């Protein structure tokens, strides 16, 4: 009887019987009423025990979990439940979720008709990458008066890996589609670029660059001919992720590092779909992962696997090392998207010389996160002098963020100033804007 559980109704019925016996001490009539009620309760419990325990596998359950979970997104878990009894039952489900969720009150309720099947779904939103261990699925079945329950336990434990957000990739692909980007009636024309990718030889017309005159072809045709070059489509896009201590700051349960990882995966997928080459570079004191830019679809899988294992050691990042290492690793002019965060102007100025040097050789786009907690503090109602001081300090830090953005833009460094939750969409819009400007 280790699977027999007494419900709240049982204790309420027992309380009523106890009260009747207490009253019966003074009025004998209620003593006999208490005996009758007690006999009825015992009989009902005996019937329910027989009904629930006469069949060993009265309720069966199968939990279906995706092979991988997507970090920061809703992931659906399915429970396939079958009632093998010849009568309807009421069930309560307690699924043992991974400890990362810290969920102590998870409970689902439902009714099952006799000899029926039912699928029950629920969603979970993981907030960090890594391995998640699901425990057993416990189902408590009861019938008739619901005085007792029988527990059915699915002892299958499952371990699932949580990867960077991949469920929303399709949604961002649609946002980046050409039809969604261009206003009606506007046609994109190809720009004659200055890259070394030769296209064809054409007759010279006023306005063509004289440096591109093809003298051999001109001598043969007896008039000026010029080389035209096709704009290079496969441009390098490197995703630089700072793993320093400032990226461990949490917002809505997720760290800035995880927000950056999800956005980096999204942009890598989009850039490869648009024929650009995506590369990955994660660093702290030194380079942790470096994947050379490529536009093969296998590159997305490599980036996913690399992003899954990224973590921080809470150290100060070494931007001087990044600058010197970039001279060896990235020879061609590229779009460098730097995921980092500066909370003070002094912190920026320590790294600004290295960022300026990077921006001279490449197109540098820096991601700066808006501290939404400061907005919450600023919008609070003032009830005391202490609140005034706190709001003043919050306003100072918020203003300093805007000074950081101005300082970067003043030195020709492009920026995306965004709330962590809006990073993916804002980054995608900025990437498409840079592509339209054709400045890479």
Structure description:
The chain has 440 residues and is α/β, with parallel strands linked by helices. The chain has helices at 8-24, 28-53, 169-175, 178-181, 215-221, 256-273, 298-308, 319-329, 345-361, 372-378, 385-410, 423-437; strands at 4-6, 59-64, 68-70, 75-83, 89-95, 108-112, 117-124, 130-134, 137-142, 148-154, 158-163, 198-203, 225-229, 236-242, 250-251, 254-255, 277-283, 287-294, 335-339, 363-369, 414-418. Helix 8 packs parallel to helix 9 (345-361). It is elongated, with a radius of gyration of 33 Å. Residues 201-367 form the DUF58 domain.
Fraction of residues in helices? Answer: 25-40%
CATH fourth-tier homologous superfamily of the largest domain? von Willebrand factor, type A domain
What name does the CATH topology of the largest domain carry? Rossmann fold
Largest sheet: number of strands, sense, barrel closure = 6 strands, mixed
Provide the CATH top-level class of the largest domain: Alpha Beta
What is the overall pLDDT average?
87
> Radius of gyration over alpha carbons?
33 Å
Structural class: alpha/beta
How many extended strands?
21
Assembly form of the protein: single chain
Domain DUF58: 201-367
Protein name: DUF58 domain-containing protein
Pfam family, one: DUF58
Keywords: Membrane, Transmembrane, Transmembrane helix
């Amino acid at each position: 009887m280790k699977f027999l559980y007494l419900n709240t109704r049982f204790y309420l019925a027992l309380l009523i019987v106890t009260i009747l016996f207490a009253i019966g001490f003074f009025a004998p009539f209620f003593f006999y009423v208490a005996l009758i009620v007690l006999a009825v309760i015992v009989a009902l419990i005996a019937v329910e025990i027989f009904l629930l325990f006469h069949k060993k596998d009265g309720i069966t359950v199968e939990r279906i979990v995706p092979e991988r979970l997507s970090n920061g997104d809703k992931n659906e878990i399915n429970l396939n439940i079958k009632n093998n009894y010849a009568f309807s039952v009421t069930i309560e489900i307690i699924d043992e979720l991974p400890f990362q969720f810290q969920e102590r009150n998870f409970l689902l309720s439902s009714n099952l008709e006799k000899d029926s099947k039912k699928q029950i779904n629920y969603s979970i939103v993981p907030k960090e990458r890594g391995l998640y261990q699901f425990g057993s699925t416990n189902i408590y079945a009861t019938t008739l008066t619901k005085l007792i329950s029988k527990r059915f336990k699915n002892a299958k434990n499952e371990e699932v890996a949580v990867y960077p957000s991949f469920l929303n990739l399709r949604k961002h692909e649609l946002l980046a589609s050409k039809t969604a980007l261009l206003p009606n009636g506007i046609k994109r024309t190809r720009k004659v670029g200055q890259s070394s990718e030769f296209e064809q030889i054409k007759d010279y017309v006023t306005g063509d660059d004289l440096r591109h005159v093809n003298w051999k072809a001109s001598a043969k045709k007896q008039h000026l001919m010029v080389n035209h070059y096709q704009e290079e489509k496969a441009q390098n896009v490197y995703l630089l992720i700072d793993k320093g201590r400032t990226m461990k700051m949490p917002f809505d349960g997720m760290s800035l590092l995880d927000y950056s990882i999800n956005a980096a995966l999204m942009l890598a997928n989009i850039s490869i779909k648009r024929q650009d080459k995506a590369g990955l570079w994660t660093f702290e004191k030194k380079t942790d992962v470096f994947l050379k830019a490529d536009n093969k679809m296998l590159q997305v899988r490599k980036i996913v696997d690399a992003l899954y294992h990224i973590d921080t050691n809470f150290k100060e990042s070494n931007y001087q090392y990044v600058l010197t290492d970039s001279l060896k690793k990235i020879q061609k002019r590229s779009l460098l998207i730097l995921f980092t965060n500066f909370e003070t102007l002094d912190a920026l100025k320590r790294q600004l010389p290295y960022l300026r040097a990077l921006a001279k050789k490449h197109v540098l786009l820096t991601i700066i996160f808006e501290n939404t907690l400061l907005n919450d503090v600023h919008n609070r109602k003032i009830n005391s002098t202490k609140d005034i001081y706190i709001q003043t300090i919050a306003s100072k830090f918020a203003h300093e963020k805007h000074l950081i953005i101005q300082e970067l833009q003043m030195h020709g460094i492009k920026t995306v100033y965004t709330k962590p939750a809006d990073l993916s969409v804002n980054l995608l819009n900025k990437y498409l804007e840079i592509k339209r400007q054709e400045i890479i």
